[in-house]
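Lab notes, practical 5.
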Amino acid sequence: MQKNPADCASMADIRAEIDRLDKALMALFAERWAYIDRAAEIKKPTGLKADIPARVNEVRRNARKNAERAGLDPDFYEDIWARLIRHSIEHEQVVLGEIEK
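Output from the prediction step:
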């Protein structure tokens, strides 16, 4: 059963909740990745490139704003999102034939 941080009475409780959250985060990343794959499928016949700088900047700004709203370090989470974006672009570039893997 899910517990709030204040309801955790032991390190075992804390670890179980962190593990639960990590599993949920991976499921969300997998869902996000499915959209990256679909984006590449849509881009290919339209001739869109994998790297669209305006969109990259928008996603980074969104990550920063979302972190701030959640009371998190915006620099740290923008950096994480920069890595996600870079990885996604590289994947799309392979799918679109812009680069070889």
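Observations recorded by the TA: Residues 94 and 101 are 6 Å apart (CA to CA). The chain has a mean pLDDT of 96.
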